[in-house]
Design a protein that fits this description.
370 residues; TIM Barrel; globular
């Protein structure tokens, strides 16, 4: 099977030839160490680059079936965003209403949300409604990479949007609960505005025959959601319904990414028809056996190999054992894609990623025999 067939089978709760594998971002220091200590075959590099970004060359060299690719599908209108006073020293306000500060390496790091008054929420809701999508050629260019990747054994799965994340982060986590209580209608309007624009971008992607998409929508902490489950079901899930319907109307799959403990979000996501949930962070208490029992027939489980305790600091033997446990707990019947529970981090051990992939290819053959 090619990687698209393998991933799609899993999302459809069917058994492919083996358990598929997926990676979020592969951080640059890891790539540098891999290049220095292992290296990439020159023929493979010439085969994939520059048709695909260089991190896909390393994903393929490591043996992954798929990796996400962030697409900036939306554009702010020309000119200035609404005015914000009391900007913290050294910070700037970006077009999504968030404070950023540039560090010594020239990188912009999120500091806080700027929209801390109902007046600013109103201004930014109107402003977001004027955002536009990138032109058709942008999505057509990605579709070419999509087809190229499928034909060369590495599937680039696009990510566009994150309405929940964009909402709470533009308010700031310290103020979000207050605004949700005191100005709920405005918070709903803000997330709805982001959702509408996200759907517009998704539609252009689907019209290029790309049939799956992630939203990166972080809404959970290590031990709970960032809001009460009843608020999540009232504020977030109706927007998931809209995005899922749009994807399914186009014959596409809709996958949600959020770090943290998603346990309380699963019932709502299942009701909304979400096709896959990722990364099921092991360090946040997510366990595949229970998730498979409760939700495995309705939503594809993606992830769960501990990114830090196994891949960064664990032994190869521990990584092998926990990878086998993931397969045992979630693979039967399909509906499971194995990946790390986060990025392939800068401090990840090369050997452990190799062991994770090798173990999946050895023990993840269907029918599962573990």
């Amino acid at each position: 099977m090619d990687p698209h067939q393998r991933i799609m089978k899993a999302l459809n709760h069917e058994e492919p030839d083996r358990v598929p594998t997926f990676s979020q971002s592969i951080e640059e220091p890891f790539i540098e160490r891999f290049d220095e200590n292992v290296g990439v075959d020159e023929a493979l590099f010439d085969e994939l680059f520059p048709s695909l970004p260089v991190d896909f060359v390393f994903a393929k060299a490591l043996g992954f079936d798929s990796k996400w690719m962030h697409l900036g599908g939306l554009q702010a209108p020309p000119g200035d965003h609404p005015d914000v006073s009391n900007v913290p020293e050294g910070c700037t306000v970006n077009n999504s209403g968030r404070f950023y500060k540039r560090n010594s390496r020239g990188e912009n790091w999120y500091q806080d949300g700027a929209l801390k008054t109902p007046e600013l929420l109103k201004d930014w809701i109107s402003y977001i409604k004027t955002f536009t999508t990138r032109d058709e050629s942008y999505f057509r260019s990605f579709a070419s990479m999509w087809e190229f990747g499928i034909n060369h054994g590495i599937l680039p799965i696009p990510t566009i949007g994150g309405p929940t994340y964009m909402t709470w982060s533009s308010i700031g986590i310290g103020k979000f609960g207050y605004m949700l209580r005191k100005h709920r209608k405005l918070v709903k309007e803000l997330i709805t505005a982001w959702t509408t624009k996200t759907i517009e971008a998704h539609s252009l992607l689907f019209e290029q025959n790309v049939d799956m998409v992630f939203i990166c929508d972080d809404f959970a902490q290590k031990d709970r959601l960032m809001m009460h489950p009843s608020d999540f079901n009232e504020v977030v899930i109706p927007n998931y319904n809209r995005m899922v319907k749009n994807a399914h109307d186009h014959g596409a799959k809709f996958i949600v990414h959020s770090d943290g403990d998603l346990s309380e979000a699963f019932p709502g996501m299942v009701d909304a028809g979400v096709d896959g949930a990722e990364p099921l962070e092991y360090e946040a208490g997510m366990r595949l056996k229970d998730l498979k029992l409760r939700f495995g027939e309705d939503i594809c489980l993606i992830g769960n190999v501990p990114a830090s305790s196994a891949l960064c600091v664990g032994t190869a033997e521990y990584t092998r054992d926990i990878t086998k446990q993931c397969i045992k707990d979630a693979a039967a019947g399909g509906g499971f894609i194995l990946s790390a529970g986060a990025n392939i981090l800068a401090t990840t051990k090369i050997e452990n990623v190799q062991v994770m992939i090798e173990t999946t290819k050895k023990y993840g053959q269907y029918p599962i025999q573990l």
